[in-house]
Amino acid sequence: MATKYRSRRARIAALSDSLRTQGQTWAQIAKRIVCDEHVNIRVAFRLAHGMSQREVAARWSEEFPTEAGAASMSDKIISYWETWPQSGYEPSLKSLKRLARIYQCNVGDLIDDGDFSHLDTASSHAKAPSAVAPSAAPATKHVLRDTSDPSGLSSLFGLAGEDDEDVVKRRAFLMGLTALAGLGAAEPGMALESMRHGLNRALAERHAATDVDEWHEIVLEYGHTYAITAPGQLFKTLLVDLYGLQAAIGRYPNDDETQRELRQVGAMLSAFTGQTIANLGYLREARRWWRTARQAADDSEDRYTMLWIRGREIVRAGYEHRPLTVILQLIDEAEARIGASPPVAALPEFLSGKAQTLALMGQAVSADTETTLIRLREAFDALPYPLRAANDSIFTWGEERLRFTESLAYTYLGDFRRADTAQNQALALYPADDLRSPAQIELQRALCMAGAGDVLQSIRHAQAIVSDVPAMHRVRPVADLGHKVLRAVPIAAQQRADVQEYRECLSSLFTVPTPELTA
After folding, report:
1. What is the 8-class DSSP label of residue 173?
2. What distances in angstroms separate CA 273 from CA 181, 226, 439, one per listed residue?
3. Is there a cis peptide before residue 515, judged by omega within 30 degrees of 0?
4. Taking the alpha carbons of 314, 319, 322, 323 in that order, is the dihedral positive or negative?
5. Fewer Cβ atoms within 10 Å of its own Cβ: the N or the C terminal residue of the chain?
6. What is the DSSP string of 473-488?
């Protein structure tokens, strides 16, 4: 007759005691509990040890005492870690190492479906000769080093060519850079897109206009997909298109007009690459791509591209730890280069970046900020109706972007009433598939709460927002605003339990990537 237990916890405790008597490890027992109880591995380890979340938190505080006055671990944080990824938030590597010590297991044991060692073919092919020549790795490193040079399009598209050796080099570059980015091997979709570019190359070999039109369509497509595509996936697509573009540039060496058109495309693709790798956390590498984008735009001699690229870089610079002096220099350079009659379609992007930058400087330049906002509203009103009415592309400039700029500027200036008005207006205008912009608006609202003195509500609101943002939308602006909320907390309140919990949340959600993208 089967033994009856008063509770699940008692049943699992009996099972654990029995298996330990048989000599099984905690990892083996936890895997058994996962199968029997249909829980994730972190819950299973805790149950295997017969501990509650509160008891785990207490053990943590004993094993890893905090500094005097600092908040200790809480059962709420343990709960967040156990419910991730369905909800809650991801524990950091440091936190997993500490849990592993408490549960007496390997760090990797605490991650569901994290063992990919079966993919390692070394054991099954130990005697097979390598299919890669001994010089392949150094060659890839050489190509990476050459192409990371930010001096201009000659470095960015320097591998253009039609012979087999150049094709091999481009493929080696693609595989090497993708591996460094931590994105895995090239996927079938990337290979298919490479084949499509090859077909276009053959079809357009004697028709430059056809080739150029195709590339402009690709840029417009990025405008539509940028805000709704995971940065990692977007980066893979950009890699393929950058190689296709470098080949296209090499096909028309004596056609100045086509060269200018393709350099305009190169500038835009470089800008998308800069934004995307910054969203992946590579801020230094992003700055290099912005320099390439600016140079390519200048080489194209297209005034819209020159101003749009600089405006977009200025907007992003405020989120990417660029010094204010550098951003102001970018603003001065753009105004000097464009002159008194800037292109209407690109002007709002530039003025939005300028207004946000001035607002970051605070009350000392509040009058200049307000003047810039007035100019921005005038520039918005002057836009052709299709650009003002649409909100499905980064190249359009709908009212929601105007309200976003007002919200951010008034938040930084401490005008919380006007910021709240702009926030409410912006939220009512975003399309359903835009999850990043509303999150940024709500984090600006949290900054307003902190500025108004409601620190606890500010932290709770910000944590709820960043925890609910899907991983693919945790881009650089969301991360930066989340950390700005934390920095807005007064020093006296930094050790409060809620603040410590929020700090841990940010640490787990927005990790610093390694290795670097450049070799």
Report:
1. H
2. 13, 10, 22
3. yes
4. positive
5. N
6. G--HHHHHHHHHHHHT
Which SS3 state, helix, strand or coil, does residue 467 take? Answer: helix
Whole-model pTM: value is: 0.66
Closest CA to 17 of 33, 6, 4: 33
Q: How many CB atoms lie within 10 A of CB 276?
A: 26
Q: What is the DSSP letter of 225?
A: H
Please name the residues in contact with 385: beta carbons below 8 A apart, sequence gap of 6 or more: none
Nearest to 245 by CA among 184, 374, 159: 159
429 φ, ψ to 5°? -105, -15
Q: Are 511 and 281 in contact (CB under 8 A)?
A: yes
Q: Where are the alpha helices (DSSP H) in 280-323?
A: 283-300, 303-317
CB-based contact 116:110 (threshold 8 Å):
no
CB of 399 closer than 8 Å to CB of 380: yes
Token code pair at residue 481: 């605003």
| Centroid of chain to Cα 425 | 26
User: Nearest to residue 302, comparing CAs of 257, 271, 270, 272?
Assistant: 257
The b-or-e profile of 116-137 (16+ CB within 10 A means b, else e) is: eeeeeeeeeeeeeeeeeeeeee
CA 143 to the chain's CA centroid:
26
Q: Which ranges of 104-187 does DSSP label H, i.e. alpha helix?
A: 136-147, 153-156, 164-180
Residues 105, 107, 111, 114: what is their CA dihedral angle, to the nearest 10 degrees? -110
Buried b / exposed e across 28-41, counting CB within 10 Å, b at 16+? bbbbbbbeeeebbb
* 247's tokens: 């080949």
Cβ neighbours, 10 Å, residue 406: 24
